[in-house]
Design brief:
42% helix, globular, alpha/beta, seven-stranded mixed sheet, three-stranded antiparallel sheet, 15 helices
Length: 403
């Protein structure tokens, strides 16, 4: 098997599993209890909080553990909207956010809030001029993802953070795809809230965190207990939190080499696909993207068919966000970038890890070329396109040249 869907989830690292095991059977006490067994769990929680804080350049008391990135996004947006509604009820975000943000914004709109969805350019980078123009006197929150989960494009977070800070507006970033993959310092980037998830970085599923800058007046998200400094009730998932902490330690340790290797493999795979498959398009910025992200659109094919046939060859990939797999609608991210419905339907996302090899990239590129050729051979539209020498059809916005 060749696994190329690391943006959906990653393999839990052996050292992470090893760190978690004692907290299932040996140190299983409730961290809120006062006896010695519970104290061991409490100590592990405190250490995990410090580890995550150090990674972000934050304070331990600014880290709140959640059940994952989606919960963290919901908490940030809903709590900020409620806490600052007296100042205003306007929120600014982008059209390419994860649905955890977009659907939360839709919910808030039904509660009487106004949301402006800023556009992106053809490479998926937010239009700063449009974002600045969207800010109003009653704007209370800007939420822009750090790195897009589909096309991997990195956003100008520092510039957006400065823009928000100068105007006294809260700035939240969904960093689920970037945390543990790239160095992030919240103070340098003027970030007020940041969402992260463990399973995107070789940690366990079902645990994440929300960074909340000290001084923000955010209320409890889950009521019922005093956990997480009375802001998020519920017995802490100590084994998962310990695993998250160990995954962060590992990520910091291997990050420079991981970035180097994944970037090299990414660029090699892009080059191979361009060399073997005509009428394809790399989606996202060629350089300003996550090290392990490759996203292509292939004219005259359906992405789902490509995925199924790749799976038959033992290659795991995706057509976009794992949270929307099975949906018939084309990617909202690609549509926002200006791609046609037809071209968006022919997209393929390949997300690498440091364990992948150049030989695997060769196999993947050859498999894609073979499958795309077979699918196009069954397409009357492609036949018409070839006969007309590329003057009609869905391939009109497809380039053959590598960027």
């Amino acid at each position: 098997m060749i696994y190329l869907d690391n943006a959906a989830t990653t393999k839990t690292a052996p050292e992470v599993v090893e760190a978690m095991l004692p907290f299932f059977s040996e140190y299983y006490g409730n961290a809120s209890s006062i006896y010695t067994l519970g104290a061991a769990s409490k100590k592990a929680l405190n250490q995990a909080r410090r580890t995550l804080a150090d990674c972000l350049g934050a304070k331990p008391e600014e880290i709140y553990f959640t059940a994952g990135g989606s919960e963290a996004d919901n908490w940030a947006l809903k709590a900020a909207a409620e806490a600052y509604k007296e100042k205003g009820k306007h929120i600014v975000t982008t059209r390419i956010e994860h649905h955890a943000v977009l659907h939360t914004c839709e919910y808030l709109e039904k509660q009487g809030y106004e949301v402006t969805y800023v556009g992106v350019d053809e490479k998926g980078i937010v239009k700063l001029e449009e974002l600045e123009a969207a800010i109003r006197p009653d704007t209370i929150l800007i939420s822009v993802m750090y790195a897009n989960n589909e096309v991997g494009t990195l956003q100008p977070i520092r510039e957006i953070g400065e823009m928000a800070r100068q105007r006294g507006i809260l700035f939240h970033t969904d960093a689920v795809q970037a945390f543990g993959q790239l160095p992030i310092q919240v103070d340098e980037l003027h970030i007020d809230m940041l969402s992260a998830s463990a399973h995107k970085m070789n940690g366990p599923k079902g645990v994440g965190c929300l960074y909340i800058r000290s001084g923000l007046k955010l209320r409890s998200f889950i009521h019922g207990g005093a956990q997480e400094r009375s802001r998020r009730a519920g017995t802490e998932n100590v084994p998962a939190i310990v695993g998250f902490s160990k995954a962060v330690e590992r990520a910091v340790r291997v990050m420079p080499e991981k970035i180097r290797k994944e970037t090299e493999l990414r660029d090699y795979l892009i080059h191979q696909i361009y060399g073997k498959v005509p009428y394809c398009r790399l989606n996202g910025d060629p350089q300003r993207r996550l090290p392990g992200n490759v996203n292509f659109s292939f004219a005259f094919i359906e992405g789902e068919s490509l995925l199924i046939m790749l799976d038959m060859k033992g290659i795991c990939a995706s057509s976009g966000s794992a949270c929307t797999s099975g949906a018939l609608d084309p990617s909202h991210v690609l549509l926002a970038m200006g791609l046609s419905h037809e071209l968006s339907h022919g997209s393929l996302r390949l997300t690498l890890s440091e364990e992948n090899t150049r030989e695997e990239m060769d196999t993947v590129a050859e498999s894609i070329a073979e499958i795309v050729g077979r699918l196009r051979a069954m397409s009357p539209l492609y036949e018409d396109f070839v006969k007309s020498e590329g003057k009609i059809g869905a391939g009109k916005d497809i380039g053959k040249k590598e960027p």
